[in-house]
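Page 42, continued from yesterday. The earlier attempt failed because a stray header line got pasted into the input along with the sequence. Redoing it now with the clean sequence only.
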Amino acid sequence: FVGWKMAGLPIAAAIALGAIVAPPDAVAASAVLGQFKVPHRITAILQGESLLNDATALLIYRIAVSAAIGSVMLKDAVPVILLSTVGSVVAGYLFGRFSLLTLTRIEDAASSTVVQFAGTFGVWILADRLGLSAIITIVVYAMTIARTAPRLMSARRRVSTYSVWESAVFVLNVLAFVLMGLQARSIVGRLSGDDGQGDAFLFAATVLAVVIVARLVWVASYVAVMRWLARFDSEDKRRDAPTFRGAVLVGWCGMRGLVT
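This time it went through. Structure tokens are written below.
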């Protein structure tokens, strides 16, 4: 809405902008919250939200960009999104089940890790070639494996797998932010004159403010509704109802990161 009304962007480009700033960064939030005694429920919510938001935002972004350049009509995008989402979920589950058959037969920790990396990138490439949402496929693929594989893998393989994946994610995050930093100068340089830079920074600040306020209002509204509904439940349900302190924490932990 801000991009459409304030910057005069076409509706498809404005939707693409919304998709860009939508996904939060669970890695940054978890790193900060790890220093404090935060309920596990809040951490799980932030991590789960990041998975779903990343997948949804990237899919909407791709459709919106296609509509902006004229390769697809925006009114025809909804069936495409639904078909791509359903197909990606099914494909991710099937790929995950097939991968489990392979991983459970490998006893060597190093070989198991290599197969996981190869399988993950292979599933991404295959999903992209099939016209599905690669990110949704990978999310479902990983969730399918994560629900079963730890019970079937030895402790040595689990430790090796977790350490390698954590290191890989850390390196990729650092590399991505370094590349974005290197691009910042050229992006600012393409803005014409002081007025252009001022308008751009004002627009960016407005988008930032809208994103922060909208998230806080949405989370607080959800908590208010859930607490109101909990009044009609048992005492245990009322104790388990989300709190406004947790809502403020979840709302403020919506920092944007790698995907944006």
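Notes: The longest helix spans residues 193-230.
Reminder to self: strip header lines before submitting.
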